[in-house]
Amino acid sequence: MTISEFEVAATTQRSRVPSLRRYAMTPPRHFTVEYAINPWMDTSTPVDTDAAVSQWEQLLDVYRSLGHTVDIVEPVEGLPDMVYAANGALIVGGRAVVARFAFPQRAGEADAYARWMSAHGFTPQETVHTNEGQGDLLVVGSTVLAGHGFRTDPRAHTEVAQLVGMPVVSLELVDPRFYHLDTALAVLDDATIAYYPPAFSDDARARLQELFPDAIEVATADAYVLGLNVVSDGLHVVMPAAATGFARQLADAGFEPIGVDLSELFKGGGSVKCCTLEVYR
């Protein structure tokens, strides 16, 4: 590396500034895989619920050690996927849109998260069409990136834009392994994303290249361990420990990757971001 290249890298490193965040999480005390609604779920694979709780608690500890606020949403028996809190809502700028789930097995989660939102000063608003919260609705800067193709109905994107008062960019997903946007794209700060190009349609890839020409493109090996299912505070990127190649890319870009093991929760098709509902300011 030349001196000038080193200076550029050092400047990039210094420019990454974390900000304190507020999250909501639900402990996986009732977690199991008793139905299959995505390609990662296999009802014949044993699930260790105690191990899932222990791994989830480690994630909680990481957030708190970084200074973030974490609200606990109590789990409801009979809703094994409620641990995937991100799917429950989009909350941004004091406005809250509760999920309308595609599958009846998860419908009760929307009621549970709506009750939590109401108890914490938010007025949960509903869409007519299916939306699966921050699974498919990710805030980057002043824009919402919105996935569709497997869960969220693209007609809900217009509703969400009106409810939260923000522009929404629709992105079509084409690989069922990446059934939610947050499995194929990671928001790293207000201007930086990472994504897995094969998960998107040609039009969606073109749109992402237009909006984020400096985006990090993640390799298949990292995408297939849900490596993009991360939570970032602008500097620290909490991510699946198995995505080692992506971790190196993040470090090269000046971020600080923090790997966690959520292998039990991976059996349900989710990881770090799935377990984390951010209350965007």
How would you sum up this structure in a few lines?
This protein is α/β, with parallel strands linked by helices. It has a single domain, classed as 5-stranded Propeller (L-arginine/glycine Amidinotransferase, Chain A), CATH 3.75.10.
Word description of this protein:
The chain has 281 residues and is of the alpha/beta class. The chain has a single domain (19-280), classed as L-arginine/glycine Amidinotransferase, Chain A (5-stranded Propeller). Helix content is 28%, strand content 21%. It contains 8 helices and 15 strands. The chain has helices spanning 3-15, 49-65, 107-119, 155-164, 202-211, 220-223, 244-252, 263-266; strands at residues 22-25, 69-72, 89-92, 95-98, 124-125, 137-140, 143-148, 168-172, 185-189, 192-195, 216-217, 231-232, 236-240, 256-260, 277-280. The protein has a 6-stranded mixed sheet, sandwiched between helices. β10, α5 (202-211) and β11 form a beta-alpha-beta unit. The longest helix is centred in the first third of the chain and has 17 residues, at 49-65. The protein is globular. 45% of the residues are buried.
For the structure shown, list the relevant keywords.
281 residues; alpha/beta; L-arginine/glycine Amidinotransferase, Chain A; 3-stranded mixed sheet; 8 helices; Arginine deiminase family protein; hydrolase; DDAH-like
What order do the helices and strands come in, and which of them pair?
Blueprint: H1 3-15, E1 22-25, H2 49-65, E2 69-72, E3 89-92, E4 95-98, H3 107-119, E5 124-125, E6 137-140, E7 143-148, H4 155-164, E8 168-172, E9 185-189, E10 192-195, H5 202-211, E11 216-217, H6 220-223, E12 231-232, E13 236-240, H7 244-252, E14 256-260, H8 263-266, E15 277-280
Parallel strand pairs: 1-2, 3-15, 4-5, 7-8, 10-11, 13-14
Antiparallel strand pairs: 1-15, 3-4, 6-7, 9-10, 12-13
